[in-house]
Amino acid sequence: MTVIMLANKLFTAPQWYSLILFSFAIFAASHALPTHSLSPRANPSSTVPPTGALIVRQKKPLPGEHPTIPDAIRALRGTKGPQTIFIYPGSYNLGVYIRYGYPLTIQGYTAAPGTYAQNQVTVSVATGRAETGGDPQSSAIWVQQNDFKMSNINVVNSYGTGTNTQAVAVTAQGERHVYSMCSFSSYQDTLYIKSPSAYFIGCNIEGAVDFIFGGGTAWFEKANIVVKPPRSFATITAHKRAQESSTAKFVFNLSNVIGAPGAKPGSAFLGRPWSAYAAVTFQFCSLSNVVNPAGWAAWNPPQDTRTQSVQFYEFANKGPGSQGLRSFGKSQVQPAKIEQVLGLNYASWAL
């Protein structure tokens, strides 16, 4: 009736029915529940380098282009302001260390930017912690800067053919990191989170032992978590908080946990505490039967459990791995909110 008065028109029955449907749609949209499903800011193109970008082309680089990613990183020296590095298809077998004083975006070539499954750029190394002297030093990519974005890049550390000890694919160190549609693979310590604010969307993460670890804060949106066959048992996360007052935590939202071929049912735990105040949440996730019914594991039982003060939570998960009597994790009363994890201004850098 209000619409008719404002429009100053008469409507037939079909027209009035259409107006009712339209009004209902507007009302529903304006009263919809908030969602944690986010999409990163769209790149100008995932097949054409933006104007002014540094270009990496492995095969037959053109004048002004770079044959390796480290060459492009070195070319940033002396430059100022936000920069983009665009990488053409190829398997790049050199470790990459990234440190730049301004916002930096790295885009891998792909015709399907909305998925990691068709990425055409892979960074691969085979270096372990034992031979490099540290987790970050073993990384295929070590990012040590603020305001960093990386999209459509596969990162692999195949040290010991991918079934040996600590070997990091990516170390994320710095504030306001965004990783979109990337794939990370190793066996132990795949993804090292040192960042106080990291956002992962649509990424694939593979490993067997503590393969998402660190003392930072990260929100994982629509992640695909793949558990490789462990030698004894697998642990997805190993979080570390120095003290109870710290706000550091890992949150997995709308994500999937599955087993790789050969991974046995019940062989994986959602995490174990690297420190006594570790904080990890899985919410709205699909957990396959690779997840052990106990859910969570102690650090090094029975001598060093570190379970007394942990904050291991689950909320509204589904699948066979969400069932069972949890060892010491708890169910949350309500889900974690992204603004409480990454900060009220998260949309200014994560979206």
UniProtKB/TrEMBL annotation:
Chief place where the protein resides: secreted
SUPFAM superfamilies given in the database record: Pectin lyase-like
The EC number(s) this enzyme carries: 3.1.1.11
Record localization: Secreted
Residue span(s) of domain Pectinesterase catalytic: 64-323
Pathway: Glycan metabolism; pectin degradation; 2-dehydro-3-deoxy-D-gluconate from pectin: step 1/5
Keywords: Aspartyl esterase, Cell wall biogenesis/degradation, Hydrolase, Secreted, Signal
Reactions catalysed according to its record: [(1->4)-alpha-D-galacturonosyl methyl ester](n) + n H2O = [(1->4)-alpha-D-galacturonosyl](n) + n methanol + n H(+)
Example GO molecular function: pectinesterase activity
A Gene Ontology biological process term: cell wall modification
Domain of life: Eukaryota
GO cellular component terms listed in the entry, alphabetical order: extracellular region
Enzyme class per UniProt: hydrolase
Matches recorded under Gene3D superfamilies: Single-stranded right-handed beta-helix, Pectin lyase-like
Active site: D210
A Pfam family reported for this protein in Swiss-Prot or TrEMBL: Pectinesterase
Record-linked InterPro entries: Pectin_lyas_fold (IPR012334), Pectin_lyase_fold/virulence (IPR011050), Pectinesterase_Asp_AS (IPR033131), Pectinesterase_cat (IPR000070)
Family, as annotated: Belongs to the pectinesterase family.
Task of the protein: Involved in maceration and soft-rotting of plant tissue.
Protein known as: Pectinesterase
